[in-house]
Automatic annotation (TrEMBL):
Transmembrane segments: 189-207, 249-267, 367-385, 433-454
This protein's name: Ionotropic glutamate receptor C-terminal domain-containing protein
Membrane topology, from the record: Multi-pass membrane protein
SMART domains per record: PBPe
Length: 555
């Protein structure tokens, strides 16, 4: 039997083909007749695909068993990030902030991978090229992610942010400071504060003026006393007595506002005086370019290529390797063999200023260039990049990253690791104290309205009482005029008297009688009027009081 016949007989039991992978057509419940010559080719391709899958699985399993050769840059400065002792020997020890992050992230991988560190002496660009060419399986350290390096290798997710800034020397400003005492507060806040003093003085004057002699007298005296009292609250030296509880409440609230403003003003002024005295010698790269100054950078980093792109020639660039060389070069200056500024990444500059003495002497200015951050290097297409990036994200989202930073970079680095340069103090604005001014304004206005309302009510009460008294007086006078009909002569006096007595008894309920004590008979020239002291009037009730007031007014 020929080979073709044997193949046909071996495949004759298969009436349909269901091929789910490798790009062939799939039969969905239908029988597809495949010619005998095509059945042989399909069988051959399926066999080749299965063999290829077994080879790939074997390569992956061998890859996980392989010990990774990891390059670590051998640094002579900033060893808190990466430090190698006894490189490439049995006693080799690799430590640092970047190393701890890498080892912690690798422990999270499943299955775990084996690796070995190798010291590398060279630039960061060279270590990336060695990884891309396969000399090393990865590079671990403080390697900055840049566009040029990403073209040759893969980087993991950055484990810390970064960027470029200037490190400069702070110089003492010897110029006289004349009007700096006005700078802690903005113009709007100054006007609001002065207006608050005058408004408080006006409210206290309105409340105290009716009863307090300190706020009475001439207009000039009243204005001066009220103004002096209001502005004396600035130093809490007001000695004028305030009597009304309303004005006391106003003064207490205003003194609290003054206390907050004075304390904030003092703190901001102190900060400004320090900032004015310690000014950075250089503020930006353009100033360095125009002055022809020398610029320093950390040896082996991408900062050199960045400065060359900015237009600085190589003869004006000077490389340094550690913090001590940074400080010495800046103290010397460009004219004495040093530099006017050092351009470096913010994590290193922040670590440089952790020393308190250096923090007083140097300053970070001009956050000028942002980079993705620091990451770990792998060859293009490495499957470890994705897995390790997930492990780094899980690490940065927990407390482990904070513990590692505190261990190597100190607690101060945690608050400045974002790379923001140190800024000078800004003036205090009215918006910062708007709540206090609203409170004191509302309280003062409320107390003033209460005082005005009480004054208006008291005046209304007095006017109403006076009107009632005038009405009673008018009624009493009318009764007196009706009851005071005196006789023209003594002869008619008795008749009138009896008539009035009868009328008083029936109508007014009051009576009067006339008596003559030691009085002689009137002569021909005697006046017919009766003396006032010889008339006795007896009244009852309110009529008696009204008549007495009328008599007093007549005398």
């Amino acid at each position: 039997m020929s080979e073709k016949v044997r193949c046909q007989s071996w495949l004759s039991g298969f009436s349909s083909w269901r091929i789910p992978i490798w790009g062939f057509a799939v039969s969905r419940g239908r029988h597809i007749d495949v010619p005998s010559n095509e059945r042989i080719s399909v069988y051959t391709e399926i066999t080749d695909a299965n063999e290829l899958g077994r080879q790939n699985i074997g390569e992956v399993s061998k890859g996980y068993d392989k010990i990774l050769r990891i390059a670590v840059p051998h640094k002579h400065g900033f060893q808190a990030f990466v430090n190698i002792t006894h490189p490439n020997t049995v006693r080799q020890k690799v430590t640092g902030y970047s190393i701890d992050i890498f080892t912690t992230a690798m422990e999270k991988l499943q299955p775990p991978r084996q690796y070995k560190f190798f010291s590398f002496d060279g630039t960061y660009d060279e270590i990336v090229r060695n990884v891309s060419t396969g000399v090393y399986d990865a590079a671990v350290g403080d390697v900055t992610i840049t566009a040029e390096r990403v073209m040759n290798a893969d980087f993991t997710m950055p484990y810390t942010q970064s960027g470029l800034s200037l490190l400069v020397l702070s110089v003492n400003d010897s110029k006289p400071i004349q009007w700096i005492f006005l700078e802690p507060l903005t113009k709007e806040l100054w006007f609001a504060t002065v207006g608050g003093f005058f408004f408080t003085g006006f409210v206290v004057w309105m409340i105290e003026r009716p009863r307090n002699p300190e706020y009475q007298g001439s207009s000039l005296r009243q204005f001066s006393n009220a103004s002096y009292f209001a502005f004396s609250t600035l130093t809490f030296s007001h000695d004028q007595i305030i009597r009304s509880p309303l004005s006391k409440f106003v003064v207490v609230i205003w003194c609290f506002v003054v206390l907050v403003i004075v304390q904030s003003y003092t703190a901001n002024l102190s900060s400004m005086l320090t900032a004015k005295r310690l000014q950075p010698s250089v503020t930006n790269l353009n100033q360095l370019m125009l002055n022809g100054d020398y610029i320093g950078y950390k040896d082996g980093t991408f900062v050199r290529s960045f400065l060359r792109k900015e237009g600085f020639p190589d003869e004006r660039l000077r490389a340094y390797i550690n913090q001590t060389e940074y400080a010495e070069a800046l103290r010397k200056g460009s004219r004495n063999g040093g530099v006017s500024a050092v351009v470096d990444e913010i994590p290193y500059l922040t670590y440089f200023l952790l020393d308190h003495e250096r923090k007083k002497e140097f300053k970070i200015v001009n956050y000028m260039y942002r980079t993705p951050g620091l990451g770990f290097v792998f060859p293009l297409g490495s499957p470890l990049v994705h897995n390790l990036s997930i492990a780094i994200l899980d690490l940065t989202g927990g407390d482990e990253i904070s513990q590692i930073e505190e261990k190597w970079l100190g607690t101060a680095a945690l608050s400045t690791s974002d790379g923001n340069p140190i800024a000078d103090s800004a003036p205090l604005s009215l918006r910062s104290f708007s709540g206090l001014f609203v409170i004191t304004g509302c309280v003062s206005t409320l107390m003033l309205l209460i005082r005005i309302t009480s004054s208006v009510y008291a005046r209304y009460t007095r006017l109403r009482g006076s009107h009632l008294q005038n009405s009673d007086t008018d009624n009493g006078s009318a009764h007196i005029e009706e009851s005071s009909g005196l006789p023209d002569d003594m002869g008619n006096g008795s008749a009138d008297q009896h008539h009035n007595e009868d009328r008083s008894e029936h109508g007014l309920g009051a009576h009067w009688r006339s008596t003559s004590v030691g009085r002689e008979e009137p002569g021909p020239n005697h006046n017919s009027s009766v003396p006032a002291d010889s008339v006795q009037i007896e009244m009852s009730g309110s009529t008696e009081q009204g008549v007495a007031m009328a008599l007093q007014a007549a005398t």
